[in-house]
Amino acid sequence: MTIILTTHYIEEAEAIADRIAVINKGEILLVEGKDDLMTRMGQKTLAVELHDCIDTVPEALSAYNLGIGADGQSLIYTYDTRAERTGITALLSDIAASGLALKDLQTQQSSLEDIFVGLVKENAA
User: How many domains would you assign to the chain?
Assistant: First the structure.
């Protein structure tokens, strides 16, 4: 049975839909299986919480393209879960070698809403 649901509540679509169509200003941007879309366009981030605040990413870690969390006490690393190697093991080793003390680690997968917002912004440019 096919049911077509239109919604602005992306969390609702993520919870119940098998296939997703993204429409922006009357134009269909894509129609794709939800799981395939999440795998293809989703990203995963690793937040490395540090014991001390930092203002800049140490030069020794520049190859990782890290961001600094809003609190100044975490490094944010975005990686592709489909890659053969994520680079996390090397990153953690290099963080320790740079003299930064780790406090905690947390990962987060991008949501369908994150993907939707990215698609709409990309299409607006």
Answer: 2
